[in-house]
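Batch manifest line 346
LIGAND: F7E
JOB: complex structure
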Amino acid sequence: MEKGYEVHGIIRRSSVDFRERIAHLEGRPGFHLHYADLGDSMSIVKVVGSVRPDEIYNLAAQSHVQVSFDAPEFTADVDAVGVIRVLEAVRACHLEQHCRIYQASTSELYGKVEAVPQNEETPFHPYSPYAVAKLYGYWIVKEYREAYGMYCCSGILFNHESERRGETFVTRKITLAAARIAQGHQEKLFLGNLSSRRDWGYARDYVECMWLMLQQEQPDDYVIATGVQHTVREFATLAFRYAGIELRWEGEGADEKGVCAAGPARLVGKVLVAVSPDFYRPTDVVNLLGDPSKARRCLGWNPSKTRFEELVRLMVESDMAKVAGEGAAAKIRTNLAEYLEKGIVK
Ligand code: F7E
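JOB STATUS: finished
ARTIFACT:
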């Protein structure tokens, strides 16, 4: 919207409304929402036909890797067949020579990695139902580009995080827990594989790159990453540090623990982080590191705009404020109950 676009988004019908992450956009001129679902071809055809978009950004997916083991069929329907529904909707509306399409592909395609770091030439080895479904999306986009001359691209994005990240992905789970523990609202954080390595970047920077991909003369696929890798353990250490808590790691494997070495007196010596095998995956991708040279060279994109430390700081600061706000709101509610009881307010 900052670029002056009129933006049409699709939302799914649900009995409860979770629109917190776009609440700041609703009601703005040039921002429109439509009910549609990637599992329902006609709904996509109707929206594409009425809006006649210049650009489509398909970020819709069942995007949680662990959940894809529990819901593999749904994941395949939305993440694989959903892509063809978008491509076919564009063709059905005779927009294939006009509308440019961005497909959110993923570093999970490299899965059980065959080389480190990974670039556009690295062989894929998907290692979850999510990754297998996304691999179909990647290839069908390439196919439609070659078969019909459509301007469609896949961005092979490595993990991109922000203050708005869903609370069950590991980064946000950690920053929110660090903020809650620091402010006395949570005792302990349970995680899975602490040694898993990821190339984490800032979503805001990556979205800029998605847009750049659609502004080129020729469509192409690009790896988007920072080229820097950290473990889950390192992310947690830094996040707790920004929340005012120094962690000391003890033990190994399922017995590893993050103990409070320094911080608020009530926490020192306590186990704040522990491992729970509930968060282990049947197959886990453990060594992702992207090589963003092509995006830097061809798109002029800067992979180091927001560094790892800055990303963790932004996320922790946001969650510290959020938790403090929730705490204040809870306190107001408690005071109100007391005032009502004492007849101070009616
Ligand atoms: O896991 C390990 C976990 O769920 C990262 C999605 O956006 O990025 C994301 O996929 C790592 C894994 O993201 C916990 O085993 C340890 O090795 O944050 P995550 P992801 O699976 O990398 C890619 C690019 C996508 O395309 C996906 O859509 O962290 N881990 N302990 C944990 N992960 C979670 N979720 N929870 C834990 O407690």
